[in-house]
Amino acid sequence: MGATETVTKTPTVSPFRASLKVAYRRLEEVWLQIRHSRMALVGLAILIFFTAVALLAPVLAPYGPLQRIVPVDSTVPCTPTVSCPLSPPNSAYPLGVSFFGMDIYSQVIWGTQVSLIVGVLSAIIASVVGTAVGLVSGFIGGWVDEVMMRFNDIVLSIPWLVLMIVVAAIIGQIELVGMILIIGLTGWSITARVIRAQVLSVKERMFVERARMIGSSNTHIMIRHIFPNAFPLIFANTILTVAVSILSEAVLAFLGLSGTTYMSWGKIIEEATNNNALINGNPAWLVVPGLCIVFLVLGFYLFGYALDEILNPRLRRR
Predict the structure, then answer these.
(1) Distance CA 235, CA 63 (A)
(2) Exposure of 219 by Cβ count < 10 A (0-12 exposed, 13-18 middle, 19+ buried)?
């Protein structure tokens, strides 16, 4: 019998697991840089706080967002122990009672959920549409790029807020899903312009030329080479778009274009303004939801700008 040879097989790692490892290492690097960025930590702390409030709303809010705790037609006079519509803050209701007999504190807590849901989902829609337009326009070029960018210029020439107000006014009062779609589908143009500029830069690099030389299709190159290199910018831009989406929802709600099945911070401010909260001795009805909008938007802006600085080497501090 001849000598038998022992063959040791090297364990193979699937491409998917290898990609996960690379992504995990990249996330570790980004997290390390975030920990050394004061701006990112402040923004992240604000976002964690409001996210916790939104998730714990059923626990923190004693009443539902549209639950009437005081009869609107009550003839009982208001006293420190008996609340009625438009009651000022007291021990039972920290922010007072609205014109419709609802607890304002509970409305503010539940409004956190609405703002985050509208902001995040609208930003995702805007980023998906804008990224698709920017990728195709920048990579294909030629007449396709010309047509898509001229249409994008027309959309950009119309102020985003004005476009949303016109669309919302045509539709009338908008429920939550409609609000998300309107904000998302009217806010993609800036993202498309930013991603197109990034694609024009990336597609001229050597690894893209090598992919063309070995016969890779345009779709393969866009998905496997262009998109991963543009993703950091897409992610950072999406974070910033969330802040703009939250402000847009607040403005549309303040103008009375939001639906009646949910309560947002903008709608609370609208009711406070319509019922003269400052004159009626309840400035918290107007100030508290306004401050919530300011701080939540500030958190997204701080974290978004810091993340953009971390993920984009050209913006890093020297």
Answers:
(1) 36
(2) exposed
Instruction: Quote the CA–CA distance of 84 and 71 in Å, as a whole number.
Output: 7
Q: What structural domains does the chain harbor? A: 31-66+97-296 (1.10.3720.10)
3-state secondary structure of 318: coil
Name every residue whose Cβ is closer than 8 Å to that of residue 242 and which is 6 or more positions away in sequence.
119, 120, 122, 123, 300, 304
Sign (positive/negative) of CA torsion 234, 238, 240, 244?
positive
pTM (two decimals): 0.81
Tokens found for residue 221: 């190159």
pLDDT of residue 67: 85
Taking only the tens place, the pLDDT of each residue in 32-62 is 777 778 888 899 999 999 999 999 999 999 9
Over residues 68-81, mean pLDDT? 58
- For residue 68, the cross-strand partners are 102
Provide the mean pLDDT of the chain. Answer: 80
Q: Contact, 129 vs 184, CB < 8 A?
A: yes
* Partners of 174 in beta bridges: 258
Express each pLDDT in 166-199 by its tens digit.
777 777 667 888 888 888 888 888 888 888 888 8
Rounded distance between C-alpha atoms, residue 100 and residue 81, angstroms:
19
Q: Using CA atoms, how far apart are residues 66 and 227, in angstroms rounded to an integer?
A: 44
CA distance 241 to 258: 20
